[in-house]
Design brief:
Structural class of chain A: alpha+beta
Oligomer: homodimer
Strand order of the largest sheet of chain A: 4-3-2-1-5-6
Distance between the termini of chain A: 44 Å
Largest interface: A-B, 25 and 25 residues
Shape of chain A: elongated
Helix content of chain A: 25-40%
Number of domains of chain A: 2
CATH class of the largest domain in chain A: Alpha Beta
Strand content of chain A: 15-25%
CATH topology of the largest domain in chain A: Creatine Amidinohydrolase
């Protein structure tokens, strides 16, 4: 397994070397994990011309949520001081006169502290080089996402078998998170969202004490974190025996938009085309306000990573990129519908997009 | 209530004006909340020579976990782009040639983007001016912490009445978090830690699937978030009818250290003296390895804020500063003890330190 991390570090080395840097310091936590296999919180990774060093504020604990560092890395445990400052000192010793750093992650203060400790070191910007490597997932990463999605489907499926009327959004959210862990998640991938009645259909609604009532829409959005990999599912149900006409109409519309988005997931499709495929159906039905800024986004070691499937996004989908497709419409005061899947982009020859979250998207009356 | 926020902003204005800035941009989330009363995630606060503006990526939702913005603030909702960049543009319009920013919060990339959009603006460092204002709490803030502590004591008390043997650390942690919310918390103040047997007594142990067994030490650490204010309690219990001699001995030692730390909480005491009061007892008993880096820390809008009660910390305690006192000893392979309270520093004339977390510290055999 550690072969994988060495290969990733090699790819990154090629990039920063081509840009004129002799060494790179990776500080963004998901990027550190991607290249090191695992790391305690706060660890940073120095890729040098020689040895690669993981600088940790404390020793790794074997906690599966943080993973295990690749054994090929030198491990420096530094209980005192900022590891990025220590890394700047080390880089000088490595005879690297130009060090690429993640300017989108480092604060101005940490950057200054590095410059102060190693004034001869020229600090360049690594940019989002690691994020770009992370875009396309290997089969091992996709296997983790697949397990995360299975756990998520199980947790949601069990909830649907229980009595919902009278329970609060908060309790349902906590129960879903407990079930994720029961089924083997290292934790929730993000804060579980449950919205009922007027709160339904919103993207990142934080659960309140509102209780589920007959006739409500009920929207849930949850996901498991499995070995660092995070997926997402969102479903909307109706509570009671029969949905109202407006509910059926709205559901069908969002369902059609979500299907159109899923069907647009083809290698080579522009990110904005996927967004447009779903969004124009909602627009055409008059729902222009309050639409999500993006119809979907990448998932992996972070729950919201590149690519963004948004109107102004630049770029095209590759095969083996996992993304969400999650259009929604929320009518203020009435509620709404949101349907969210995690899929992996696959060539048509391989059967098209691989749906990871397989819970039914029929409008269930619970 | 909004009076309070205007007063806080006035105090900050005095500080940055004295340092030569005409305006300040506050971006660290807890600092924004402290000065604005409440803000949606990602909001930043521009304090100008004239109007104060809260720049939000989306409209406030009334979610109690984020609070409500002070009505005296101008509210700019900017769904696209980075609010700090928009703030730089606004600051130019405000005729402020020098803008103080939080360099310990802003990334290098955001800082550069601000400079690019407003090249005539000189960016200075606000430093930790807001953190310094936040050190001493007013009675309303302490009231929130008191409620947070009550909720935390209730959640822990209920757990102690249930059967523990055979349950996993993860399940106990999830149950504690559910009970926090049941009793009115906006959420847990931090990830609840439960450690059994060899995992007991560690600071931020992440719960595993290990089950509670007879004869184990069981350590829990939890806290409620109430209106943004976060407290912390940590207790260690023994499972079964009678603790072993080594368990009693270790417990008595940590208890004595924790009491010494609590008793050192006097206005005017140096931070390092409080640390020393507890630490030297553990040192003297031969437990020099693996002690926590700090015996305690401030709590408030963040669970770990200034002051740090640590060997090298500079500064002295003031009255009305809430802190934790949380020494612990962990014996690798055997487990350990950690005892953690949240207290408010008070003058002796007022009865000395106010203990917020009142769950018993006797060694309970459960």
């Amino acid at each position: 397994m550690s072969e994988v991390y060495a290969v990733r570090r090699g790819l990154l080395r090629d990039r920063y070397a081509a840009a004129g840097s002799a060494a790179a310091l990776v500080s963004r936590p998901a990027n550190v994990r991607y290249l090191a296999g695992g790391a305690p919180p706060g660890a940073v990774l120095l890729l040098g011309p020689g040895e690669d060093v993981l600088l940790c504020p404390r020793a790794p604990t074997g906690d599966p949520a943080h993973g295990q560092p690749d054994e090929r890395l030198r491990l420096d445990v530094l209980p005192d001081g900022d590891p990025v400052v220590a890394a700047a000192g080390l880089a000088l010793g490595l005879d690297a006169d130009r060090l690429a750093v993640e300017e989108h992650d480092l604060t101005v203060s940490r950057h200054r502290a590095m410059a102060a400790v190693a004034p001869r070191l020229r600090l360049a910007d690594l940019g989002s080089a690691v994020e770009q490597l992370r875009l396309v997932k290997d089969e091992e990463e996709i296997a983790c996402l697949r397990i995360a999605a299975e756990i998520t489907d199980q947790a949601l499926g069990e909830l649907l078998e229980s009595i919902l009327v009278g329970r609060t959004e908060r309790h349902l959210a906590l129960e879903l998170e407990r079930r994720l862990v029961d089924h083997g998640a290292d934790g929730p991938a993000f804060a579980t969202s449950v919205g009922t009645g007027p709160n339904s259909g919103q993207g990142r609604h934080r659960p309140t004490d509102r209780r589920v009532e007959e006739g409500d829409f009920l929207s849930v959005c949850l996901g498991a974190n499995y070995r660092g990999y995070r997926c997402e599912i969102g479903r909307t149900f109706v509570i009671g025996t029969a949905p109202a006409d407006w509910q059926i109409e709205l559901y069908d519309l969002v369902f059609a938009a979500q299907r159109a988005g899923r069907e647009a997931l083809v290698p080579g499709a522009a990110y904005r085309e996927v967004d447009h495929a779903a969004r124009h159906l909602l627009d055409a039905a008059g729902h222009t306000d309050g639409l999500p800024a993006a119809i979907g986004h990448g998932v992996g070691l972070e729950i919201d990573e590149d690519p963004q499937l948004a109107p102004a996004a630049m770029g095209k989908l590759d095969a083996c990129v996992p993304v969400t497709v999650e259009p929604g419409v929320h009518l203020p005061g009435r509620g709404g519908v949101r349907i969210d899947d995690t899929l992996v982009v696959r060539p048509e020859a391989d059967g098209g997009p691989e749906l990871l979250t397989i819970t039914t998207k029929e409008l269930l009356a619970l």
